[in-house]
Amino acid sequence: MNNQYLEQYARLIVKTGVNLQKDQTLVIFSPIEVASFTRLIAQCAYDEGAKDVVVRWEDEQLSKIKYVSAPDETLETVPEWQKEFYLSYAREGAAFVSIYAEDPELMKGVDSSRIQKASKAMGTAIREYRERRMNNQNRWVVVSVPTEAWAKKVFPEASETEAVERLWEVIFQTVRADKENPVEAWKEHCQNLKKRRVYFDENPVKSLHIQNSLGTDLQVELPEGNIWLGGSEFSPDGVEFVANMPTEELFTVPKKTGVNGKVVASMPLNHNGSLIENFSLEFKDGKVVAFEAEKGYETLKNIVETDEGSCYLGELALVPYNSPISNLNILFYNTLFDENASCHLAIGKAYPVCIKNGDKMSKEELEAAGVNDSLTHVDFMFGTEDLTITGTTMNNEEIAIFRNGNFVI
């Protein structure tokens, strides 16, 4: 492992990811397996003037034991101190780093409904925290660090040591930690993503027709006042940050009741340690009316049936097939990377910031504007080499957005 790149990655997370400010608290959610890297982030944060660095350690092996053995009452209950942990730091104005590095097969054989019970209980308990993040009231970033189980899933032919080393190399490349000046490289990357956003600002479309040879044939209407975002974002105090590292997407909000047709997933989805493979969903007036999966059907069912809003979409994201992560030809089994190699949709909650003045709207106003709400937000990929996307303008003119899997605008 290249120690210089390692330090540059940690500093990127602090300076570019959450853009930590002097005297601000940093909260890190970290697997215990990557403790050494988490300590490096903490040191970088203090070097930047952090008031405090707080770590909430996570152990997926212990989580599995709980899902298998704990009584239902425990799974459905979130202690007040856990809720207070999230809310107190969020209200204080802390920044949040989430290190996402799950074993894609860990929960194989575990009753997915039990995992969903715990997930729903936590989602309900910390709803205010999640809403603050999705409104960018708190700056946040999701990143990944190799673990042995994840690396072996990605590179099964390699030894554990070799697999971890290879995954580190790929991560350094995709997050630009291997550049001479990673911070400047990210500024340039975000500016390039913003250029494409300008096209939609100047040429707004009211709907998109998405098709490919897998069987996807989907009409997606966009709500009035929708905004396309990508690259960096801004918190209400005007501080720029990057919520996902890596990121290659341009995304917006679909109209809740404006999605019709069928979408076929182009990659497996790892959700809470369970894989969903070869799946599809059908929509009518925005709602999922049918779905199939060769593997992980019950997990998909639990996602769609989480709550009233989980059978609607909350995000549409465009990523060219010819993009840095896609060109690696690696299936990561990790949504942070796979979603930045492919166009994707998200089941569940929408980002209010994707509609004009959405961050200032009430729940009722967002609903009236066609913005979906839910306890969940689960991305899945549909992009392919032959993907075609045609937009309809406000003047009912058709324009090509994607041809052969790539932007033509």
Fold blueprint:
Layout (H helix, E strand, L loop, with lengths): L2 H15 L7 E7 L3 H13 L4 E7 L1 H10 L2 H4 L4 H13 L2 E5 L12 H14 L1 H8 L5 E4 L4 H7 L5 H15 L7 H21 L2 E7 L5 E5 L11 E2 L5 E2 L8 E3 L6 E6 L4 E3 L2 E11 L2 E9 L1 H8 L8 E6 L16 H4 L5 E5 L14 H6 L8 E5 L6 E6 L4 E6 L2 E2 L2
Parallel strand pairs: 1-2, 1-3, 3-4
Antiparallel strand pairs: 5-6, 5-17, 6-10, 7-8, 9-14, 10-12, 11-12, 12-13, 14-15, 15-16, 17-18, 18-19
Q: In percent terms, what proportion of residues is strand?
A: 15-25%
Question: What is the typical, i.e. mean, pLDDT?
Answer: 96
Radius of gyration: 20 Å
Tally of structural domains: 2
Main sheet overview: 9 strands, antiparallel
Shape: globular
Unreliable sequence segments: none
Helix content: 25-40%
Beta strand count: 19
The computed structural class is alpha+beta
N- and C-termini, Cα separation: 39 Å
Count of alpha/pi helices? 13
Describe the 3D structure:
This protein is an alpha+beta fold and 409 residues long. It folds into 2 domains: 172 residues, Thermophilic metalloprotease-like (3-Layer(aba) Sandwich), CATH 3.40.1830.10; 196 residues, no CATH class. Helices cover 34% and strands 25% of the residues. The strands form 4 sheets. Strands 5, 6, 10, 11, 12, 13, 17, 18 and 19 form a 9-stranded antiparallel β-sheet that branches. Helix 1 crosses helix 2 and helix 8 crosses helix 9. The longest helix is centred in the middle third of the chain and has 21 residues. It is globular. The two termini are 39 Å apart. The model has no long low-confidence stretch (mean pLDDT 96).
